[in-house]
Every structure is written in C-alpha cells, then in structure tokens.
Amino acid sequence: MKTLHFPSPIQSITFDNHHFYLKRDDLIDADFSGNKARKFYYFLQNDFPNVTKLVSYGSAQSNAMYSLSVLAKMKGWEFEYAVDHIADYLKEHPHGNYKAALENGMSIIRKENISSNYPESVLFIEEGGRQKEAEFGLQALAEEIISWQEDNDVTPLNIFLPSGTGTTALFLQKYLPSHKVYTTACVGDEHYLKEQFLALEKDENLHPVILSLEKKHHFAKLYKENYKIWLKLQQQTGVEFDLLYDPLGWRVLLAYPEVFSLPTLYIHQGGVLGNESMLPRYERKYKDIDKDIL
Ligand SMILES: *Cc1c(COP(=O)(O)O)cnc(C)c1O
User: Per its UniProt record, what PANTHER family does this chain match (predicted)?
Assistant: First the structure.
C-alpha cells in the first residue's frame, strides 16, 4: 500500500501584495490528492473484506471520478462509473481525468444501470464523495491545521476554500469550531450550497460563511477573469492551482479584505490533473491575452 504525505505542508505566499498561508493538500500524493484524498481517506484506511466493486456516478471529467479510480486500483476493486453523457470528442480523444481513470481500469456504465439495492460486495459512493464517511479525513485535516498553529504560534486564523458540494467546508467548520471558515459556491449558487450544508448539518450556526461576487457565475464556463487570476497566481506564487474552483475562490477572497485582515489560510484542494482538459480550452479562447499585464 502506498503511503500518503500527511501532514500536507503549509507555506507562506504573497499574492497581490497580501500575505496568505497556503495548505498544500495538492501535495498529499501525485495520484490521490487534494480534498478527494481527504474525503475518501476513510475507505483507504479501513478494510472492506467483502467488497469487490466500487460504483459511483457524476461528470465524465470529475476529480472525484479520477480519485475513485485510484482508490479502486489501490484496493484491487473493479470500478464502475455512471455518466449521463460523454461528449463525442472526449470519447474519441480521451484526455485529463477521464483518460487517467480509464487507464486505472474504470468502466463506464449507463445511469439506468445504477441499482438502488446493491449486495455487500459493492461499495456505492455518492457523486463527489458527498457522504458522512468524508468526515473522517476532514477531521484529520482540521487537526493538522490546529497543530500547525500551535507549532508556529499563529492565532487567530481565518480559513478560506472554494466549494462544490460544500462537504469539505462544512466538515472543516465542524472540527474547527473556534475558527471562521469562509467559502464560495462554485457549482450551484448560494442557495444550492446552503441546502447542501443543511443536508449535512441542521444547525446553521455551525455552517461556514458563504461569500459571493455580485455577478452570477457558471461552473466550467470560460471566464477571462478566471484565466487571468489563474495565470497571475502562477506568476506570483509559483503554485499551479486548479482551473475550475480556485480562480473563483481567489477572486472572491480578494473581494473581501475584511477576511484577510486576519491571518488567512487558503486550502489548495488539488484537482490540477483536470487542468489538462481546461487549460487548452482557455488558451484557445483567450490566445491574445497579454501575460505581462495581468
Ligand atoms: C471536489 C473539489 C472541490 C469541491 O469540494 P466539495 O467538498 O464538493 O465542496 C473543490 N476544489 C477541488 C480542486 C476539487 O477537486
């Protein structure tokens, strides 16, 4: 069994002349990294002697799909993944997460073939790992943060991370009750994210704070502002961020100076393998961008 790199390092970065701390969960492992490594850690750490197959569903380029393919391979399980739709181009020219997951042995199935009643030999995982087992690895993340603060005398500390299903932000807030966890909705809108929080935790006082930009934002759409801030992050910090969540995350964080008036920790949740499919799209669409004046 391969060993994962815990605790992930925390480094200091300067972005747009502001100081931030950066939790490098993208460095946990080359294959099994970021918040999916945290969310699926429970399944990695425990033995499931009866399980022979993993089944899940979601989009054909998702980070969760790729991480599950790594998990299944590590465990010696079959891996079936249901999608609604795969673009013809992707089918004919596999790339990014999809290609890597196929190489790990993933089989694509139809959504109709997902059962509501699996035998014990099948482990079914919700889209994006949105389930209670995620709590296990996210508690460990919270503990890493607290022990880093103690070792480095960093109190107080605000936390910021961009959300999809909100599972990571919610459980982090649960295990960091004396911190404020701030997030933004990347996949749906604020109302969607609030509902996700409520499904996991009824007490709203225990929810992260949701921050937003005024303009509506659509997931996976190519925004010039997102591309620009992603390039600028790379130039100024030397770190590659993901192209789906982090650009909006950083734009939102910079729009709320009251958050980073206290020392602030940004969580890098991995996902850079997905850039392989997003980056060429951005490069084609904004080929005239002047990288010297972002
Ligand atoms: C999955 C993912 C997210 C969203 O995580 P949630 O727990 O669903 O909010 C954010 N960033 C990256 C890079 C991801 O892969």
Answer: 1-AMINOCYCLOPROPANE-1-CARBOXYLATE DEAMINASE-RELATED
- The strand pairing partners of 266, in sequence order, are 22, 160
- One of 3.30.1330.60, 1.10.760.10, 3.40.50.1100, 3.30.70.2740 is the CATH number of 38-129, namely 3.40.50.1100
Beta bridge partners of 38: none
Ligand 1 centre from 35 Cα, in Å? 6
CATH 2.60.34.10 fits 10-29+132-293, yes or no: no
92 in Cβ contact with 273 (< 8 Å) = no
pLDDT in tens, 114-143: 998 999 999 999 998 888 999 999 999 999
Q: Enumerate residues lining ligand 1, CB below 6 A.
A: 34-36, 63-64, 128, 162-169, 242, 245, 269-271
Predicted confidence (pLDDT) per residue in 212-232, tens digit: 999 999 998 999 999 999 999
Which 3 state secondary structure label does DSSP give 105? coil
Question: In Å, how far are 60, 96, 163, 186, 269 from 189, measured between CA atoms?
Answer: 22, 26, 10, 7, 20
Q: What is the pTM of this model?
A: 0.96
Pocket test for ligand 1, best of 245, 252, 266 (most atoms within 8 A of CB): 245
What is the Cα–Cα distance from 217 to 107, expressed in whole angstroms? 32
